[in-house]
Amino acid sequence: MSGLARGLLRGVLRLLYRVRITGLEHYAQAGPRVLIVANHTSFLDAALLAAFLPDRLTFAINTEISKRWWMRPLLYLVDALPLDPTNPYSLKTLIRHIATDQRAVIFPEGRITVTGSLMKIYPGPGLVAEKSRAVLLPVRIDGAQFTPFSRLRGRVRLRWLPKITLTILPPQRLTIPDAARGRERRRIAGK
C-alpha cells in the first residue's frame, strides 16, 4: 500500500472508529521473520492491520475470495498471496515467502467469526511458522465485531461506529518436539 493511501485509510479508520493500538513494542521485538496471526471478527480486519501495523505486510488470502469482484480493488492496496486451502502444497509458497525475512498476516480461523468468539483454529499457520522458522506475533482485534461489517447480525447489537482496539501480544517462538510426526505434529502446531 502506498504511503498516501495508507495514511488516508488510517485517518479515516481512526476518525470513524477511534482506533487505538497497544503493544507496538512487541511488534519491534518480533524481528524480521514474522507470521502475524489475528482473530477474524469482520471484513474490516485486513484494512485495520494494513493501516495500523508499521510495515508493508503480505496477506495470505483464499484464492476463491481473491477472485471476487469487490476484493480486487482492495488487493491493489496490499501485497496479497492467494492460497488454495484445499491444496496443502499452497502453504509452501507462504513458507518460502516468510523464510526470506518477510512479515505476513494470516487469519488462523480461516473465516470471519459467526459466534463472536474464536472459531476453530487450523494447524496450518503453526506449521508455516515452524517450517519457515518465523516468530508468531498474535494480534487481537476488539470492537470490529460490533460493526455492520461483521457476521453477527442478530447475535449482538451492531453499531456503525464502535471503538476498535488492536492489541499486539508478545511474540512467541513455536517449538515442536522432533519426535512428533504427522498428525501429532499438526495437533501441536495448531495448539
Share in helix: 25-40%
Oligomeric state as shown:
single chain
Number of strands: 8
**What is the end-to-end distance?**
33 Å
Q: Overall 3D geometry?
A: globular
Order of helices and strands: HEHEHEHHEHEHEEEH
Radius of gyration: 16 Å
β-sheet strand percentage: 15-25%
Description of the molecule:
- The chain has 191 residues and is an alpha/beta fold.
- Helices cover 34% and strands 19% of the residues.
- Strands 1, 2, 3, 4, 5, 6, 7 and 8 form an eight-stranded mixed β-sheet that branches.
- Helix 7 crosses helix 8.
- The protein starts with a helix and ends with a helix.
What is the secondary structure topology, with strand pairs?
Elements (H helix, E strand, L loop, with lengths): L2 H15 L2 E3 L1 H6 L4 E5 L6 H8 L5 E5 H4 L5 H4 L3 E5 L6 H10 L3 E4 L17 H9 L2 E8 L22 E4 L3 E2 L8 H9 L1
Parallel strand pairs: 1-7, 2-5, 2-6, 3-4, 3-5
Antiparallel strand pairs: 6-7, 6-8
In brief:
The chain contains eight helices and eight strands, in the order H-E-H-E-H-E-H-H-E-H-E-H-E-E-E-H.
Keywords:
eight-stranded mixed beta sheet, 191 residues, 34% helix, single chain, 8 helices, alpha/beta
